[in-house]
Amino acid sequence: MSAIIAGTYNSRDTGGIPLTAGGSTRAGVLYRSDALAGTTDDGIRTLTASPIGTIVDFRSDFEKTGAPNRIGTARHFATVELPLLDGSLTGMPSAAGLDEAAMRQVFARLPSLADIYIRMLGSAAGTFAEVARLVARPSDETHGGVLLHCTAGKDRTGVAVALLLDAAGADRGAVIADYVLSETNLAGEWTEHMLARLKSWGAPLIPAITDLVTATPPEAIKAAFAWLDERGGSGEYLRGGGLSDADLSALRARIAGDPRADAADGGHDGSHLR
User: What's the rounded Cα separation, in Å, for the pair 19 and 14?
Assistant: First the structure.
């Protein structure tokens, strides 16, 4: 799938994803992307002409300093910074001063993507509820679309998008497929660049590391959904983070465009886990 914003690798509109109640998610509401640092002039023109009015950046200060977003000045975008350190390279252990055997031992103990996602959900309910509010109640009705991004657009962004789509009543299998798509989108130039960067830091290119940086295995997001389902589902999770019932209904209406989505209380309850 081609990126919709030139200069990115993993940008897309989540519109068109099937809903469990029938129909599909609305276009122009929820977008996802990797970082916007390499956006070309054509990409900036696409952003300017798009319904996007709010950009949510999950990156750390370290990530943003090295790769500031390039979004142009033709019109205003509300940029909301909500750093999530789980899923970022900021927390990678240092290989400085270690021989190869010691490095492999250190990196072999890295958490899996599933572990990272569950830890992220466990510590950031308030952050995800804030993202849900931004999507549910856009401040600019003319440009009500919200774009979520981190560095790769696969982990922090992937969990956030999957959570919101699930809470809105999107088909669980289709949400998982959207998550998995990121690995394909990032393959090639982006992946080669990131692996070269890791190698320059002295990190051994073993699966425990390369998978964290480049992969989107379905088992990882399924584990996140299982964790959510054990706690009442995606909607209940967002309520626990401070999202009101009214805002949850507004989120469903914005994404699903159909009040029937409100009947899917809490998103999925575990019976839909594949």
Answer: 12
